């Protein structure tokens, strides 16, 4: 017999909650927080977490992977992750030796179960990969793994339009 009794009190009594300050929050896309755990090859930015929105059970943000870039191998502990591809072409590698591969494009959802070693790759050589990321907990768990990826991460210098990458 399971002893997991989830106690639900129901909605708060009318007039007891300040919904103006404890209601819906809009986090503008240009105000995301880059101070979150990072993996080489990608830029993560937090939109929804406890600090920014009061979220207790979710983490959400954006991920940008530059053209032709790959991340290092990592996993997210017990967290489940959902990646939604906004634009670009995602190639995911996963497994003990990153031996499995699948691709996803705009409008596709990718589910990453707990503890799965994986690597995100931008399959395009000229278009950035932009994704929305949602995790099942706001613990900022990123375990960067020391396994030899099938596709090695590459250092990608960010080059703004004015400073072209002079070599």
List keywords for this structure.
mainly beta, about 170 residues, 10 strands, five-stranded antiparallel beta sheet, three-stranded antiparallel beta sheet, 2 helices
Describe this structure in words.
The protein has two helices and ten strands, in the order αβαβββββββββ. The protein has helices spanning 19-22, 50-53, and strands at 43-48, 59-65, 74-75, 81-87, 90-94, 100-104, 109-112, 118-122, 129-135, 143-144. The protein is elongated, with a radius of gyration of 19 Å. The N and C termini lie far apart (67 Å).
Gap between N and C termini, in Å? 67 Å
The average pLDDT value, as a whole number, equals 82
Taken from the alpha-carbon principal axes, the silhouette is: elongated
The parts where pLDDT drops under 50 for at least 5 residues are: none
Q: Structural class given helices, strands, pairing?
A: mainly beta
Cα-atom Rg, whole angstroms?
Answer: 19 Å
Q: Secondary-structure element order, as H and E?
A: HEHEEEEEEEEE
Counted by DSSP, the helix tally is 2
Major pleated sheet: 5 strands, antiparallel
Strand order of the largest sheet: 1-2-9-4-7
Number of strands: 10
Percent of residues in helices comes to under 10%
């Amino acid at each position: 017999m399971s002893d997991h009794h989830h106690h639900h009190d129901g909605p708060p009594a009318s007039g007891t909650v300040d919904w103006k300050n404890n209601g819906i929050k809009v986090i503008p896309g240009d105000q995301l927080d880059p101070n979150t755990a990072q993996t080489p090859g990608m830029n993560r930015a937090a939109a929804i977490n406890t600090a920014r929105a009061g979220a207790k059970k979710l983490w959400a943000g954006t991920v940008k992977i530059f053209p032709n870039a790959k991340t290092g191998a990592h996993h997210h502990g017990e967290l489940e992750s959902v990646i939604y591809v906004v634009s670009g072409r995602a190639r995911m590698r996963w497994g003990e030796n990153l031996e499995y591969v699948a691709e996803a494009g705009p409008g596709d959802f990718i589910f990453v179960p707990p503890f799965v070693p994986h690597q995100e790759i931008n399959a395009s050589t000229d278009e950035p990969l932009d994704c929305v990321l949602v995790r099942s907990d706001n613990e900022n768990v990123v375990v960067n793994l020391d396994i030899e990826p099938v596709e090695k991460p590459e250092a990608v210098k960010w080059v703004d339009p004015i400073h072209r990458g002079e070599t």
